[in-house]
Amino acid sequence: MKLERRFTSVQQSMAFSRRMMLVRGAQLAVGGLLIGRLGWLSVAENERYQLLSESNRVQLIIVPPRRGWIVDRNNKPIAINRSDFRVDIIPEQLENPEATLTMLAGLLKLSIDDVDRILKELKAAKGYQPVQVAENVPYDQYAAVTVRLPEMPGVQPMRGFSRYYPSGPAVGHLVGYVGAASAAEYEKEKNPLLITPGFKIGKEGLEETLEKRLRGTPGGQRVELTARGKLVRELTPKPDVSGGTVQLAIDAELQEYAARRLGEESGSVVILDCLTGDILSLVSMPAYDPNSFSDGIGRTEWKMLSDDQRRPLLNKVLNALYPPGSTIKPMGALALLAHGVDPTDRIHCAGGYALGNRFFRCLGRHGSVDMRRAIAKSCNTYFYAMGNRIGYDNIAPMAKRLGLGQKFDLPVVSQSYGTVPDSKWKLKRYADNQKLIERPDWTASDTLNASIGQGYLIVNPLQLATMSARIASGRDLQPRLVGVGKAPPALLGIEPKHLEIVHGGMWQVVNGDGTAGASKLQLGGIEMSGKTGTAQVRRLAASASRGQGGDWKYRDHGLFVFYAPSDKPRYAGAVVIEHGLGGARAAAPVAKDVLTFLFDRAKAMESLTALETQWGGTMAERTARRAAAVAAAAAAAARRA
Q: What would the DSSP string read from start to end of 129-179?
């Protein structure tokens, strides 16, 4: 018989008590472990988890790239970067904005406008992005800020780079300037680099049109911060890549000399290489100082520049248009030859040309003249008669062939390319606007006016220089601004004997008894050929001074186109002196000195030094005096405000 095992109540109670002890022991062990871990975390790991509890985050600070250099054909710098000092504020590290700004205003001599700007930018600032306080800070002020840093948490003085133009105003209209991006520019590109303190973009000239090549690629500094802006650590940086260097066709020394030689005149000088079309100088004066613009121009200086009747803000080489006057007579002669006019045919000049009941005046009484003589003496009567013989519709194509009215493929902001008129142009322009003119059809008087570079014909100085270079070389030269040309372009297809006849007339202008004899080069074995021109600013009555006196703004312009050496042309160009009274008087002497510089620099500098003594100092000295006058005017305006 199988016996059943039975448990008494006492035995059951003892078994339950043992199980409870095991459970409680396990609970105590787990509790001990938790308490020990909490103790470890609260003591040994306190600092680590305190930082973690403050919501650490990683931010990228953009490091602006250094802008690429602009150099001339000989690698001489035209636009470079130079080291400077700046002061920024890190908003999240700023403890007492008002006290800090008050101290900075005293140390850096900040204006009320500067302080207001900084306050606005601080309010709009996000994250660790710095706010610019001042740039181009003098070293003594930079040192003063550095010494007081313990009293100004959040202030960050640092070294940086700013744009510098060694030749100042001489290259103002050539390269333009740089400046901070506008709100519209940022909205267009949405690039955070554009709103980085201290970063600037091209605003005018080559700085603007070559922006992509010059800008470079930004770098970055990754930093780990707390929510309170405390720097935890700097992570691996990404280096920036500097912008590329751009080489121009310009000769920097020639550019500066031509700018200085213009002195206080309002005008332009363009020189081309007759072998390649390279633009060796592109000077428009007076000009603004790009160093001043890049640092930030004030209202006072802007107003002075805007109000100046000599138009220093206008690039006269590309955007000013003038009647070319008699400078286009060599072009007209080529058109006459192309349409069968015998260069030996003679016209008697008795002081003008009668067309119906109107009499078109000449500059003198030249007697019997052929083509060469007409160019040398600038006889209007000859070109009136011959132009009327073949009609201007047969002259206009030659003008365009030689570059007049042409828009060139250049990296420039804009070009005003003027007008080469003909019968189709006039009809198209005035057929629906007969209130502006009596007859929309082309008339014989239109032909006479255009034949001597007046009337509807208007051009810019670069076109005149190109015309001169094409006549000198017989080649289809295209002006080049970036890079250095190597090979000559194709021929224009103009008969060599026609070019020889025109060259002969232009040689007589300077080296014979022509209109520019006083500007003959004083260089052994080197001669210049050219053509003077005088362009009327307004219509004048026969009894008036004909633009040779009176208010400056009503005086005639002086123009001169030229090339040298005459026997083997290498350089060609154009000089325009606004309201200079005449080409022989004002423009040809400038051309003479600029060409002298290309062949004998010492001789040219000797002449320039004497002239600058009369003008009150070098261009740099006069620019410095103007800057001081602007600063004084701005200070006076601030005191009155």
A: --EEEESS--HHHHHHHHHTGGGSTTEEEEEEEEEE-TTGGGGHHHH--EE
Cα separation of 257 and 251, whole Å? 10
70-71 and 246-247 strand pairing: parallel
Residues whose CB is less than 8 angstroms from the CB of residue 186 and which lie 6 or more positions away in sequence, other chains included: 194, 195
**Cα–Cα distance for residue pair 610/603, rounded to 1 Å:** 11
Q: What is the dihedral of CA 625, 629, 631, 634, to 10 degrees?
A: -160
Q: How far apart are CA 417 and CA 411, in angstroms?
A: 15
8-state DSSP, 584: I
Contact 276, 480 (CB under 8 A): yes
Torsion of CA 127, 133, 137, 143, to 10 degrees: -70
Nearest 5°: the CA angle 26, 28, 31 is 110
Residues (pLDDT < 70) of the chain are 1-19, 23, 40-61, 126-129, 222-235, 434-436, 538-549, 641
The structure tokens 């006076």 sit at: 636
Q: Residue 212's pLDDT is what?
A: 94
Tokens encoding 308:
């100046």
Q: Which of 522, 517, 413, 402 is nearest to 463 (CA)?
A: 402
| Cα–Cα distance for residue pair 6/51, rounded to 1 Å | 64
Tokens standing for residue 56: 């650490």
The vertex-295 CA angle with 290 and 301, nearest 5°, equals: 70
Q: How far is CA 90 from CA 126, 129, 207, 233, in A?
A: 10, 7, 30, 16
Q: What is the pLDDT of residue 63?
A: 80
CA distances to 176, 318, 535, 539, 556 from 579, rounded to whole Å, are 26, 18, 9, 14, 5
Quote the pLDDT of residue 59: 62
Contact residues for 364 (Cβ-Cβ < 8 A; gap 6+): 349, 351, 377, 379
Query: Which residues face 283 on adjacent strands?
Result: 269
- Tell me the C-alpha distance between 91 and 126, whole Å: 8
pLDDT at 159 (0 to 100): 80
d(CA 287, CA 578): 14
What is the per-residue DSSP string for 365-388?
--EEE-HHHHHHHT-HHHHHHHHH
For 281, list phi and psi in degrees, rounded to 5: -150, 140
pLDDT digits (tens, 9 = 90+) for 92-130: 778 888 888 889 888 888 877 788 888 888 887 765 667
| Spatial distance between the Cα atoms of 259 and 281, rounded to a whole number of angstroms | 9
d(CA 326, CA 383): 10
* Per-residue tokens: 189: 């590109």
3-state secondary structure of 354: strand
What integer pLDDT is reported at residue 568 of this predicted model?
96
Please, are residues 515 and 376 in contact by the beta-carbon 8 Å criterion? yes
pLDDT score at 515: 94
